[in-house]
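User: Before I run my own analysis I want an independent prediction to cross-check against. Here's the chain; please return only the structure tokens and, at the end, one sentence I can use as a sanity check.
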Amino acid sequence: MVKKTKIYNRFDTPKVKPFETTGESLTQQSHQKQTDIHYILSQYRNTGQIPNIAQGQQMYGDFASVPEYSEALNLVIEAENSFASLPAKVRAQFNNNVEDFLRFAENPDNIPELIDLGLVPDENITEDMRARVEARNKSSQPKVSSELKRDAEEATEPQTKPVNPKGDGGA
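Assistant: Structure tokens:
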């Protein structure tokens, strides 16, 4: 025998047992005043701010120039990929940490070291930069070892092999 499905309407509703709490209530009664809508509205009338929302630090400003999340994430990924393409010895000098490298590279006082590492393309080196490098070289020994400079230069050179026009595999 098939059980018949009962269809209810708003006049004929199913009988539901009311919820009953057994034992001690877990609700914290100390928050009763702060959650009372009448108290919240009276606070709003007095101060002009909703009490629960006013706890945070407000920030006002023009944030139109701030990039979208995806754009900012792409910038971070691009920086990590660029750092990963540097020679291992150069990365080790910065503890393999992209943030340490960026902090170092953004400091104008470190331009001579960046030039010595070969990380600044020749077309971007200004006369002021060249003068700073020469002044630093005259006053003290360069901070960057020649071995690191050579490794950086090798990493920035194009990695192409000569093509044999005959195609026979020989040199």
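Sanity check: The mean pLDDT is 79.
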